Amino acid sequence: MRLSALPNLVFLAATTVPGLALAEGFERPVPAAQSATAEISYALATLSFLVALWLVHRLVQRK
Known about the structure:
Layout: H1 6-21, H2 36-62
């Protein structure tokens, strides 16, 4: 290792190590309740998916 790289390593250690020592732990976010609009849209999407599956079933059954 060249001696000219030593100041770069000192600078890197001086800037990253204190940041790691002062870092806070991860706090999980509080889950929010699902809105009524989201529930309605999910129900409509589920029903449309079931209708599409039924239509594909009927299409394949005829052949």
